Amino acid sequence: MYHRAYGIIETLAPLHVGASAGEETGNLNLIFRDQFTQTGIIPGSSIRGRFRADMRLRRQQHLEASLKAAGVDLPAATARKVSSPEDPKKRLPRLEWLEQEAEKQSISVPELVNENHWYGHHAVTGQEDGGTTEALVKFEYASLVWIPVFCPGQPVVWVSCPRLLRRYKQITGKPEPVLRPKAAADGQPKQYPVKLREHRDRLFFNLGFLDNLAETPDLSNWVPKDSQIQPDNLVVVDDQDISIIHDMALYRQTRTKLEDDVKKVENFFGFEALPEDSILIFPIAVKDSVPHYDRASDASADGSARWKPFKNRTLRELYFGGLESIGCGHCEVTLAGDYFGDTPDDADA
Amino acid sequence: MGWQAYGLDREAQWLVLQALDIDNDKDIKGDACLRESYKMRESVAYGLERFWGEHMRHQGKQEKKSRYWKATWDILANILGPADVTLPNDSDPKAMAQKLWGEIPVDSSGKMLTLEDQRLALAVLTQLCDCLVWWTQRYK
Questions:
Q1: Is residue B16 part of a domain?
Q2: C-alpha–C-alpha distance, residues B80 and B75, integer Å
Q3: CB count in 10 Å sphere of residue A168
């Protein structure tokens, strides 16, 4: 039914996906969390929204280029609203204006850059069932794989837990068993798998510390192989301990909105975000009516369109979430998996 | 044991309640020590030595404040004990200075306070003071 694919997100700036300042003025803007581990997530709808918006821009660019080639006078590039040709008093969004003109010129949009084709058509009034269609590409939420945490007096460590690693394994098809803290046979305290740059027997955090660390060299196999950051300080903690460590790791700020004419605080708001250098993963399902995408040959047998959101690349910088204008959301996304012609991890062995 | 929390909130709440009791007791005649927590949070930026020095500065003049600062230091030392960091706790400023700078051993075991220990102690003290400020806001 579906080709399997997945995306790896590495945050290059703090990432805030949750309530935004406008929605909860004067409050704390929290991120969305997974209900079991209480760690940050990006909902599938937010991921789809980002992909849809990016492809919509490509469709708009396509329409503009085609109309220009057909000799149509385009409105100024920065004009967001354009007067309707039929009724000059009616102001249309730029894209809608372009669509109308394209229809007159019988210019069609190739499926490759049609976001409604891949991500499902949005509801339109006056059509049966709102004119919606099923998406050909489906996204699930992104969960953390590794989150960096500040350790006073020690290097930063990236932390994960068995539950998060299990999801990573499910999505990537990694063959190895999930690493988890193990209780020693004689009922001794649990040993925590770690890979640390310098051998240490404990790790300190702001609110507590971890001891009984067990050196585990192959832990670095759990870092996505194309990851840009390649952390060499890793630790796997219990599922019930990840939430407090995650809370220590979050990027938090209190901000103020000043009044427009005087330097007086109008309201306060605080926000939290996943720190930069966090690694997340999300599954993607591509309906198998879409031909398999082979990067090397870049052609499908029947000439039908394939889903290539980043054109011929699999790595792109994208912005996710809110508070973009104040420095949040810059991420690097790598697409991988079966659909993109990747061999599963076990094929390497 | 694995993950071990320092229990900072509990300690901070206890400290703030103590300060509140002193301030409320007419017989003890406090020096309004409740709000010292804000000064404590400010002073951690200047390091362990100066934080410890503040209780010396208040000594003999504002005894209640001095005791609040010292109690906070004592609790920090207690918290760091299980983490195997021995925080010096002398009454002699000269010995304290040398121990805090890692020039002489902190105790008879011959252990020195390393730079890593100092950074850890300061990070925990910062968090503890954040907790103190939070509880002070709650009770004032």
A1: no
A2: 9
A3: 24
Task: Tell me the one-letter amino acid at B86.
Answer: T
Q: Is residue B4 part of a domain?
A: no
Query: Structurally, how many domains does chain B consist of?
Result: 1
* Kind and range of the H or E run holding A273: strand A265-273
- State which residue of chain A sits closest to B117, comparing Cα positions: A153
Inter-chain residue contact B3 with A238, CB threshold 8 Å: yes
pLDDT at residue B15 greater than cutoff 90: yes
User: Is residue B5 in some structural domain?
Assistant: no
Identify from A161, A196, A207 which residue to disrupt to test chain B contact, counting B C-beta atoms within 10 A and taking the largest count. A207
CB-CB neighbors (< 8 A) of B126 in chain A:
206
Q: Print the domain residue range for B107.
A: 32-139
When pLDDT is averaged across residues A278-302 and rounded to a whole number, the result is 85
Closest Cβ–Cβ partner in A190, A206, A207 for B2: A190
* pLDDT per position as a tens digit, A170-199: 999 888 899 888 876 666 778 888 888 877
B8 CB neighbours in chain A (<8 A) are 207
Q: pLDDT digit string (tens) for B76-92?
A: 999 998 888 889 988 88
- Give CA–CA dist B5/A205, Å, rounded: 9
Question: Is residue B104 situated within a structural domain?
Answer: yes
